[in-house]
Design brief:
Helix content: 25-40%
Order of helices and strands: HEEEHHHEHEHEHEHEEEHHHEEEHEEEH
Structural class: alpha/beta
Number of helices: 13
Shape: globular
Number of strands: 16
Radius of gyration: 22 Å
Oligomer: single chain
Length: 457
């Protein structure tokens, strides 16, 4: 039974119906067949929860699109946005503005190494677009290597860099992108038996691919530090360091995409901090201000920044470093510090989510593998634990996707809004989720996985 929200100020089904009707008449939704969707009309949200106009409350195990790292409606950040709106609601990016300067300073203080220059964008895809442009201009080369299991955004370059099927309708085949396999022992493309073998073989595969493409033609290698939508596969020890060494050897720019994994999601400021690796460029967005106002960016090292000391950088955005967005970032970073949000994500991952999800895996035949850290976890759902056959086929739709659809419906029935992609469900709550809320989510997953179990062999 879906619980009713103690935070919901009222129940107004008629208002919800009006919102839904206007949406269906006029809103064109992303990644969707417009006539086949039924969006929930949301009346409000607070902390780790949101609710509809009928008063049904859901624990959000998606954090929006993995961006509400401090939850919904945090009063400190809302107040900072209101204060900035009263002071200076907007201003062009060519000027020095307090909120913009302070946001850049705070971000640069937390990025690894000498990533001390910040180019602001409106989101993650634009950050990736500009990072690749910078790498190409800096090196004078054109090719970019990216992973098959990846997602980098929906704009022109970013979607061509993406590995998952959302790329296919927009793949022009001439974007200078070369894809390669990254390590993933559970579904290893390298027939490895151990993490060490997987790491060594993945690095050799990258070396071999570079050799045949010509290292001197490659501008950048871009990786999600920990792939997000593709399945939250934490890299084996030594892999990222190995890629760093390869990039150094051939003069290739190493780009880490931290749009999803950054700003506390993994229990550290950036996922790169787990691996002691410093990229040349790092993209960010989402958690930088919990998505309260659109903001993204590229953190740039000293060498690449110097390329544009006397040579104009040919890129920019009207709303780059928008004061409202930057004020939200300043407040969010302060909240993360003051309320120990990052420490909480690490603690919850180590003591509640990790152990709890692994315990579910022991009891449910539909759970093939659990992987992740912090507030960033994935359950790989299977038809058969022995063969590791996915619960649904790759990129399944319609009837072929029925087992995952049934699992999702069961989760919602038990008050949990799940993150589902192909044969996986991800547990990605707010980074300041409480132990009680995390356990509530685990209980709902337990009930929903019983439905997934019905589709196992």
């Amino acid at each position: 039974m879906t619980p009713h929200a103690p935070h919901a100020p009222f129940v107004d089904s008629a208002a919800g119906a009006a919102v839904k009707a206007a949406d269906r008449a006029h809103v064109f939704h992303s990644w969707s067949a417009q006539g086949l969707i039924d969006p929930l009309a949301v009346a409000g949200a607070e902390g780790a929860y949101f609710w509809d106009y009928d008063g049904n409350r859901y624990l959000d195990f998606t954090s929006g699109l993995v961006y509400t790292n401090i939850g919904y409606q945090h009063p400190t950040v809302v107040a900072a946005i209101q204060e900035q709106a009263g002071k200076l609601v907007t201003f062009a990016p060519a000027f020095a503005v307090e909120a913009r300067s302070e946001a850049a300073r705070l971000i640069a203080e937390r990025t690894p190494g000498d990533l001390d220059k910040i180019f602001f964008t409106n989101g993650g895809a634009e950050a990736v677009e500009n990072a690749i442009r910078m790498a190409r201009l800096h090196t004078g080369r054109t090719k970019v290597f990216s992973a098959y299991r990846s997602y980098h955004g929906a704009t022109s370059t970013a979607i061509n860099l993406t590995g998952d099927p959302r790329r296919w309708p927009s793949d022009n085949g001439s974007a200078g992108v070369v894809r390669f396999w990254t390590p993933f022992l559970y579904r290893s493309p390298f027939h490895a038996a151990t993490e060490a073998e997987e790491c060594a073989r993945a690095l050799q595969h990258l070396e071999d691919t570079l050799a045949f493409e010509g290292p001197a033609t490659v501008a950048a290698i871009i990786l999600e530090t920990i792939p997000g939508t593709a399945g939250i596969m934490t890299p084996p020890p030594g892999y990222l360091a190995g890629v760093r060494e390869i990039c150094d050897r051939y003069g290739i720019v190493f780009v880490l995409d931290e749009v999803m994994a950054g700003f506390g999601r993994t229990g550290k400021w950036f996922a790169a901090d787990h691996y002691d690796v410093v990229p040349d460029l790092m993209t960010f967005a989402k958690g930088v201000n919990s998505g309260y106002v659109p903001l993204g960016g590229v953190a740039i090292n000293a060498e690449i920044a110097a390329t544009f000391d006397t040579r104009p950088y040919p890129g920019g955005l009207t709303y780059s470093g928008h004061p409202l967005a930057c004020a939200a970032a300043v407040a969010t970073i302060q909240v993360m510090e003051d309320e120990k949000v990052i420490e909480n994500a690490a603690h919850i991952g180590e003591t509640v989510l990790g152990p709890g999800l692994r315990e579910l895996a022991e009891r449910h035949p539909s759970v093939g593998e659990v992987r992740g850290l912090g507030a960033f976890w994935a359950l790989d759902l299977v038809r058969d634990k022995e063969t590791r056959e996915p619960l649904v086929p790759y990129n399944a739709t319609g009837e072929a996707n029925a087992p995952m659809a049934a699992f999702g419906a069961a989760a919602k029935k038990h008050g949990l809004w799940p993150f589902i992609n192909m044969n996986r469900t991800h547990a990605v709550p707010a980074c300041n989720v409480t132990e009680a809320e995390a356990k509530e989510g685990l209980a709902a997953l337990d009930a929903a996985l019983a439905v997934a179990d019905e589709h196992t062999v």
